Amino acid sequence: MAMMWAGRFSKEVDSKVNAFNSSISFDGRMYGHDIRGSIAHAEMLGKCGIISEEDSAALVEELKKVLQDIDDGKIQLDMNAEDIHMFIESVLTERLGEVGKRLHTARSRNDQVALDIRLYLRDEIDEIISLIKKLINVLCDTAEKHTDTIMPGYTHLQRAQPITFGHHLMAYAQMLLRDIGRLEDSAKRMNQCPLGSGALAGTTYPIDRDMTAELLGFDCAMINSLDGVSDRDFCIELASAISIVMMHLSRFSEEIIMWCSWEFKFIELDDAFATGSSIMPQKKNPDISELVRGKCARVIGDNMTLLTMMKGLPLAYNKDMQEDKEAIFDAVDNVKLCLSTFIPMLETMSVYKENMRNAAARGFINATDCADYLVKKGMAFRDAYKITGGLVALCIEKNTDLEHLALEDYKSRSELFDGDVYRAIALDTCVNMRSSKGGPSPDSVKKQIEYTRAALKKV
Ligand code: ARG
After folding, report:
1. Angle at 99 between CA 93 and CA 104, to 5 degrees
2. What are the φ/ψ torsions at residue 351 (nearest 5 degrees)?
3. Which residue's CA is minimally distant from atom 2 of ligand 1?
4. What is the whole-number distance in angstroms between the Cα of residue 113 and the centre of ligand 1?
């Protein structure tokens, strides 16, 4: 096919080369943003007297029609086109003839593509943030039901100290709040307009970059035209913010996978959010969580693709940069997919409080509290730690736990022990007393939920 830039060439592009070179199969999704950018550009050209007001109005009107026609499926994207920018321009030129050919005055595909990706990702960031907000809301609602549901807290995956399920869930809520912060931050830096950078060196036409920046809802026009077309930092920043979201979802997934194993049985996923085995009739598999954990890998890969693609590129545009889109779109698509499946999965899961409590009741999870008991009676912590360690060894020897160890056994190790030790090391006491700011006690968790809901209102 003949290209728009065919003037300099004496042959048509080899069909294999055309297929290799073309990006419309993946940048076609930006048609709406491309048209929006072109409308702003056409308006500006008219206002600045670079094209006539009539031509400008005709371009704007026709661009709106092309948008409508693509939306309605009346025009199909031509997969032989080089990219979405060329495709839209060719449709416009087919329809408007001479006037259509004026649209690309004082513009290059280099600033056009940089603009389109920013416009596209800006919308996507809004969607990702609203999904994360939904997830945090589900976490707050679930945590509210479990402010006093005792479970073991772990370090090294060994039972460590008792916490509440609400406390555990609110930890994820904080991680996700930070994710929103990172996404907002990347959106802020992304919100500068590259249009008018031209191919790299601006233009000799009297364009008004501030006008197009404002029409398109940007905070300002980018300061340097070379940077305007060379920069893909915003893709890398977004991919890295998304990678962190995915890493969080992946850690959560790992816990869900463990929690619904028979070894834990802390939760059970709803039948609609689990899958069976083709051979083992008893199986109920947490495929969704596993897939989220798996997809985290590809998103990290997308981030790496972008960094590696950019690391050796001289300024300004190089065709390598066409590879940005598949990577960043993949990251965006997958995080949205994961979030929208994860949310209802969490909403519908059953929580087995008894199993959580039983697990917390074993494993000497109250040993720290036993040591703290001695400290509160005047002993130095290191001595109390040692004595409690000895008591744990004694329990293991006697096949019992600290709650059931005889008072004589306690007293044999320290005279400071008395009958009140049993109350001090009871699970509920251990949790309720952990009321320090940010701690697992029901009151403390309620405050965390309150804080989180208030923070969400500000997003
Ligand atoms: N399809 C190209 C891309 O996605 C558009 C920019 C092309 N510019 C150029 N000079 N070849 O990066």
Report:
1. 75
2. -110, 125
3. 322
4. 7
Measuring from each residue's beta carbon to the nearest atom of ligand 1, which residues come in under 6 Å? Answer: 23, 27, 83, 109-110, 113, 317, 319, 321-322
Is the bond leading into 316 cis (omega within 30 degrees of zero)? yes
Pairing of strands 192-193, 220-221: parallel
**436 is annotated as an active-site residue:** no
Residue 435 annotated in active site: no
Q: Any idea of the CA torsion for 119, 121, 123, 128, to the nearest 10 degrees?
A: -170
Residues 6+ apart with CB under 8 A from 69: 75
CB atoms near residue 42 (< 10 Å): 27
Q: DSSP letter at 313?
A: P
Catalytic residue among 10, 156, 278, 436: 156
Single out the catalytic residue among 15, 261, 277, 412. 277
Q: pLDDT tens digits for 17-52? A: 999 999 999 999 999 999 999 999 999 999 999 999
State how far the Cα of 432 lies from the Cα of 347, in Å rounded to an integer: 27
Q: What is the pLDDT of residues 170-219, one digit of tens each?
A: 999 999 999 999 999 999 999 999 999 999 999 999 999 999 999 999 99
